[in-house]
Specification:
This protein is an all-beta fold. 0% of the residues lie in helices and 41% in strands. It has four domains: 59 residues, Immunoglobulins (Immunoglobulin-like), CATH 2.60.40; 92 residues, Immunoglobulin-like (Sandwich); 90 residues, Immunoglobulin-like; 82 residues, Sandwich (Immunoglobulin-like), CATH 2.60.40.10. The termini are far apart.
Length: 340
Amino acid sequence: MAVKILGPGGLPIRAASKKLEDGGSTTEYTYTPVKQGRHIVMVTFAGQEIPRSPFEVNISPFRRTNIRAYGPGLKGGVVDKPAKFTVDTCGETGALGFNIRGPSEARIACGDNGDGSADVEYLPTADGEYAVHILCDDEDIPGSPYMARIDPAPADFDPDAVRVTGPGVENGVNPKERTHFTVDCSEAGIAPLEVAVADDLGQFTPEIRETSEAVFECGYRPREKQPKQTVMVNFGGVAVPGSPFRVQNDNPNDPSKVRLYGPGLEDGVREGRPTEFTVDCSESGPGDIQVGVEPVGKQNKKRKGSGGGGGGGGGSARKRKNSVVPVSMTDNKDGTHTVR
């Protein structure tokens, strides 16, 4: 087996190879493009190019993004079983798109979760390697395409028979206490079990212990300042019924820990001059912030009239009309907001 890669202008690019732990029949090649543009990848075996070689790869400019993707369908799966994964925009704007390329035409279904994330699944009908493209504004996000290995289904294997129950996969988790849930694989056959919890900080593995044959108890504690988490349970590389589970914490906010400070809250603020103050929510947990500044109406003093004769000039009481003062608020990305 030999691999040759040419960049724009015919520039040769070195490829590093590594034998995978599958008996030595699979080799992984990696390379680092140094320029944007058209690249040609040529793969030969026994001196002859393999089918579909040479491969054409267009390298786009590197883009930074907050978009995250995770789930079993990005790594592998089983023929005729939905391969699932989740994409979380993390507040980033742009048009998401998905493209699956592989030995079969895999039908794609996408469900919007209404919180900036989407659950995606595709149905491979043939085994082999699939390229899972996740696009934002028609460009692959960093890490895309993900290479997923789809295997034939084992004879004694039924991920749909796995049952997941318990408070750890339900809304209302106490953010300050450990929670748990049970995974029952006793009727599902023999296959590896994978359990992971994802939040805005990334993924972590909960505590897992087998309480009886093929029945497992999983425990975790929500990480600090994380109001929600996604629990993923995969059996044999396939998401079990209900997975991924989206879990909202109970009462993640504590308004008493919000702090306000700055010159805009102190004596000495002058009319017509801008000022500012800070709203510090770093210890209070996530939540919407609303700020309004309204002047207090002043009642002018009644002035005594002056002048000769019997005519007394009388003043009148006037009240300044209240109006809302326009404000702007800037998120400092550290749990604090500046109000001007």
